[in-house]
Amino acid sequence: MGGYSYNAYSLECTESTPEANYHLEWKWNHKKHYVSFYILFVSILILFSLIGLERPYNYIVAFLLLGTYIYSLYKYKSNKAVGTIWCWLAVFIPLVLLVI
Fold first, then answer.
1. 76 falls in which pLDDT band (50, 70, 90)?
2. Which of 42, 17, 40 is nearest to 30 (CA)?
């Protein structure tokens, strides 16, 4: 998959555009099958959190990862800034764990 991704997608990763409300716009959001990359990425993160963390933290992290992704998908899909906003939201998950 890595070799395919490297060859199929150019190295131009992000750009700040008016269409994305000046958020970073991931270029691969405009490529064919971009949804499969999001599904794969989020699924792997959730799987790692479920396997690698102790209960109940594994469920909390998995829920927060999925919840923040769904929120950013709902809110920012129209301007192709889903990945940027989701990454920004996901940064706060370790802080939530520290508070718990």
1. confident
2. 17
